[in-house]
Amino acid sequence: MKEYDVFIIGSGMAGMTIANKCASKGLKVGITDELPYGGTCALRGCDPKKVIIGATEVRDFAKRLKGNGIDTIPKVNWKDIMAFKQSFVDEMPPKIEKGYKKNGIDTYHSSAKFLSENTLEVGNEKVKANKIVIASGSKPRVLEFEGGHFAKSSTDFLNLEKLPKSVLFIGGGYIAFEFAHIAARCGAEVTIVHRGENPLGNFDQDIVKHLVSATKELGIKLILNTEVTAIEKVGNKYRVKGKSVEKTENFEAETVFNSAGRPPAIFDLNLEKAKIAFTKKGITMDKYLQSTSNPYIYTAGDAAYSEGLPLTPVAVLEGHTVASNIIKGNSKEISYPPMPTVVFTLPTMASVGFTELKAKELNYNIRINYKGVGNWFNAKRLNVEEYAFKTIIDNETQTILGAHLIGPNSEETINIFAMAIKTKMKVNDIRTMIFSYPTLASDITHML
């Protein structure tokens, strides 16, 4: 049996941060992942997705400016953009493993299962550690209805050699919307089927309405209040059965994708054998990110049931916190700054801080600024229709509690709002700043 000071399950950004930081302090570290090293973001999520979106951004920009200086709208060459994307993905796992070995970290490439409170079965080997970190991330939700296995995952979408002529996404979250926008701009017929009344439920619904409008304008069919109950293969297509209060409908597509959410990837680890408390939302942990029921265990990233959003920068923050507490003893409490989050559709939608509903629930005395600003100069020069904002101001402190944007460069502008919320900048101090003009950030002063 091999023994370690620290053993980590999962090689995403949380696990990588913990492994390298602990090894740098002389601890004997091992890490395992049944998938290639790098985690979801680098290999199967944000990074490859953003590379693909880059090509659709060019097409979208050209389409908006056609007749205003641009004569033709380029087509996206799916094969070329996938090859470009793959050049980023392929280099990551060997680069990461090389770094581990340089730092003296033992690497494994197998699934892990607990045998007891501090021992694991990793492939065919047994491992014992003073501290075990569960940083196993998340994975697609299992569709338990008839034919659920026919639905492909988001990873499958990012590895499509050829884009199908028609695609259907189950679920109305950010993965569905982002991939639907990509597929539609690349020429596919796209349908999203969502069981709820409102898609993207964690975002401000006034701003979501603008994205829904832009989505429909793109030709995407958005079916709401409809739960998928079965998938049937019919020839070279799939028939998807959707049930609403009023009726049952059938939808057909060449390929169906499961975008119904990503629960934590912890349920195959035999957590009960290690007496690890958990819920369907993740490992139950304290303010030090240590298991509430097993002191040998720490957790970080999507595997943790925490206040942190399922975002890569949050996983890194939690990774640093776990590493510090393993190295120095529990002395660093997890503290979450404002966490900006983005839906990388076109237009992009971004959010940070409280929604209007949350601020009211917490009884803040607030002022709401909500406006569609398609008539502003920046919208006109870029020829965009959907440009809107909602800012939530604390009347008592005159600071920003939340900001919600849709429109060009909102993924960048939202970071300035995040900084203002974290530093508790007064609204008047922001209003009197000089921003470079004409930039999207220069519109901030008019959003307050």
Strand segment tally = 22
Q: How would a textbook summarize the main sheet?
A: 7 strands, mixed
Q: How much beta, percentage-wise? A: 15-25%
Total helices: the number is 12
- The 3D shape can be described as globular
- Report, as a whole number of angstroms, the end-to-end distance: 61 Å
Structural class: alpha/beta
SSE topology sketch:
Elements: E1 2-9, H1 13-24, E2 29-32, H2 39-44, H3 46-65, H4 78-102, E3 106-108, E4 112-114, E5 119-122, E6 125-134, H5 154-158, E7 166-170, H6 174-185, E8 189-193, H7 205-217, E9 221-223, E10 227-234, E11 237-243, E12 248-253, E13 255-258, E14 278-279, E15 282-284, E16 297-299, E17 304-305, H8 312-328, E18 341-343, E19 349-353, H9 356-361, E20 366-372, H10 377-382, E21 388-394, E22 399-406, H11 410-423, H12 427-431
Parallel strand pairs: 1-2, 1-6, 2-3, 6-16, 7-8, 7-13, 8-9, 15-17
Antiparallel strand pairs: 4-5, 5-6, 10-11, 11-12, 14-15, 18-19, 19-22, 20-21, 21-22
